Amino acid sequence: MLANSFYDEEIKVNAENFNIESLLAMSHSPVRNYVIPGLTSYLIGQPSESGTVRLFCNERDHQEQITPHSHRFDFQCWVLAGKVTNRIWTRNHYMTHPDGDIFVSSHIKCCGRIGAYEKKVNDRGNWSYRDFTYSAGECYSMKHNDIHSIQFSRGAKVLFFEGATITDTSTVIEPYTGDKHIETMEVRPWMFQKESGAAAGKTGG
């Protein structure tokens, strides 16, 4: 059984007899450089209204920052190889909280294709974080309104169970300093490069 949310006890699933290579052969429809260089998202089977199964494969040691964000759905993950560090952000009650920093929260609405969105600034708040690291065989999950950023090790492979869409918007938080909103969320031309057909096992992903 997978954890119900990030603060639950860590769950480890016995993966001793799990054949990762067979799963890689089932993968298709890669989207390369998924926010960061070297991270590829593959589909396993076909998406449906009730959910989608993806496989994330990372081929580089992840150094780049990912803007903290929520999702439009609940999801659960099983780490098959490598490690991931899930950074969970929590809004504090006071703007002067000593363990946090000031961020601007914005609502993001998807515009029908990956990487296309509308952004509406919401408000400022004081946010702090906790890191949770998961290794091969461990599972974690998040609710759609949890805000996180994540880091993948080189060679990480994560099976991602995406639930049904719950809301049409998500939230991002970006730094506020010197009376300025620093907009760190961006979509670059090299991100979200779609390819057809190739399975993860055929591309070295």
CATH architecture heading:
Sandwich
Question: What is the CATH topology descriptor?
Answer: Jelly Rolls
Strand order of the largest sheet: 1-9-5-11-4-3-2-14
CATH class: Mainly Beta
So what's the overall shape? Answer: globular
Number of domains: 1
Low-confidence stretches: 1-7
Describe it for me?
- The protein is mainly beta.
- It has a single domain (11-203), classed as Sandwich (Jelly Rolls), CATH 2.60.120.10.
- The chain has 2 helices and 14 strands; from the N terminus they run βαβββββββββββββα.
- The chain has helices at 20-26, 200-203, and strands spanning 11-12, 27-32, 39-48, 51-58, 73-81, 83-91, 101-110, 117-135, 138-142, 147-152, 157-165, 169-177, 180-181, 193-194.
- An 8-stranded antiparallel sheet has the order 1-9-5-11-4-3-2-14. Strands 10-6-8-7-12-13 form a 6-stranded antiparallel sheet, with no helix packed on it.
- The model is unreliable at 1-7 (pLDDT under 50).
Write the layout of secondary structure elements.
Elements: E1 11-12, H1 20-26, E2 27-32, E3 39-48, E4 51-58, E5 73-81, E6 83-91, E7 101-110, E8 117-135, E9 138-142, E10 147-152, E11 157-165, E12 169-177, E13 180-181, E14 193-194, H2 200-203
Antiparallel strand pairs: 1-9, 2-3, 2-14, 3-4, 4-11, 5-9, 5-11, 6-8, 6-10, 7-8, 7-12, 12-13
Summarize the structure.
The chain is mainly β. About 5% of the residues lie in helices and about 50% in strands.
